Amino acid sequence: MSWVASIGDAFMEFIAETGRISKFFQSAMYWMFRPPFRYKLVLEQFLFVANKSLFIICVTSIFTGMVFAVQVYFGFRIINADGLVGPTTAIAFVRELGPVFTAIVVTGRCGAAMAAQLGTMRVTEQIDAMDVMAVNSIHYLVVPRLLASFIAMPLLTALFIFVGNVGSNLTGILQLKIDPVIYMSHLQEFVLVRDLAQGLIKGAAFGIIFATIGTYKGYYTQGGAEAVGRSTNQAVVVTLVLILVSDYFLTLMIRALLYPTQI
Amino acid sequence: MAQTQQEFAIEIRDLHKSFGEGRYHVYSGLDVKIPKGLITFILGPSGVGKSVLLKHTLGLLKPDRGDILIFGRAIPYDKPRELNEMRKHFGMLFQYAALFDDFTVFQNVAFPLVEHRKDITLDEIKKKVVDKLRAVGLDPENTLDKYPSELSGGMKKRVGLARAIVLEPQILLYDEPTTGLDPVTRAMVDDLILETNAKFGLTSVVISHDILSALYSADQIGFLHGGKIVFWGTPKEFTQCNHEVVRNFLDAEMKHRKELEQ
Ligand SMILES: Nc1ncnc2c1ncn2[C@@H]1O[C@H](COP(=O)(O)OP(=O)(O)O)[C@@H](O)[C@H]1O
Ligand SMILES: [Mg+2]
Question: What is the pTM assigned to this prediction?
Fold first, then answer.
């Protein structure tokens, strides 16, 4: 009986947490469109999310592209389809791997950092101090992080897609000896503008997800310094689960909107 | 209208508040009236809800039941902009100063001005910041460009106080201003509370468990216990109070003083 009850409790807690997160997000949306608009803070956060992620995005994407080419090649060679390595990589990166892997990498760096920053500000009463000084802390702290992530993520996703394809291309041509002309030949037929749109929209959506969860977990940290670590940890886990789950539903939605005739 | 001159800065009526879905009651019918222009200490042991009281006063927490009036006006919880306007009446010194870590002293003290006084120039902001730092006994030249991590606990408090008064509030709240300080810094903070109240003609509310500070600086003392105010009066009346919990609190302090006198 007790495990039934604890599953019930966990489920109720899940519902309650979902409600709190959406209320937090609504509040951020409320303040986003109210003056003053703090461009400088948005820029600061944008540089934090984008600039500092450049290197790690390049490293992870080039190796993802390289291993992808290798795996696909040894599969496709059996049916004499090595010419499809290029287009397959491109489609996979543009639609899925780009946005999802970028989000995972940036969550580890920036989503966690947001939770830690706001968590520290919470437990040292800096957030209370801000509210007491009649500066809404969601307006000042959360809104710039949400906006910056929303803008930076599509750009980082595009970078991941590009560098990943360069990696795949180099591996395909130099290591697997695929004819460069063949590697490139079918790209335009397979990868369309709407595929790129799909990837970038997903990137932006994942940006909103990691920024919302990161700031939410930090903002509502309760306790001392050890609580900040807990919030950071939870922020990363919850964000990753949400990104992978929402990816499926986002794909269905985007297909319904952008791919009306295709099955 | 029969609107008389408001004699209370803060009026709390029949406040009820519990946490954890009603499992844990912090207040059950709390009544507090903070008179204008005086220094009022609210004393009580740790965990009775002193900080929570300040958070209610500022509208950071919402009562389960009861009313809180600031200069006779109810707190507008559901109107964020009006709530912000109301908060401009207040300055608050947090227990650990709560300075922004990645701001310099200048940026910290200037923060409320930068955010709320779009009408004044940067030079005027600088002048006000320097004035307020001097008012709390700091040397602006040596402190303006420092970060909080480079300051001692006492200096942080002074900077926190400068930031709290920079918008010239009418009510100043202190959360345990002397807890955990060395005796010299503690005496300095006691004087700072008195001086600041006199210099700026404020209403001060100090939340503390420091009896000696209260006896030294307070005009009025309230004692919080079991979710209610169990004593209210002058420092002299406080030392003669016969309420059991207050007595225990006082006797514990006096025991140490007797040790010292021997
Ligand atoms: N946001 C909160 N959620 C749950 N419990 C809280 C919260 N804030 C304070 N409490 C509890 O209320 C009680 C009073 O807290 P507080 O006012 O901080 O005490 P103190 O008198 O030492 O300042 C404590 O037991 C504390 O655990
Ligand atoms: Mg406290």
Answer: 0.92
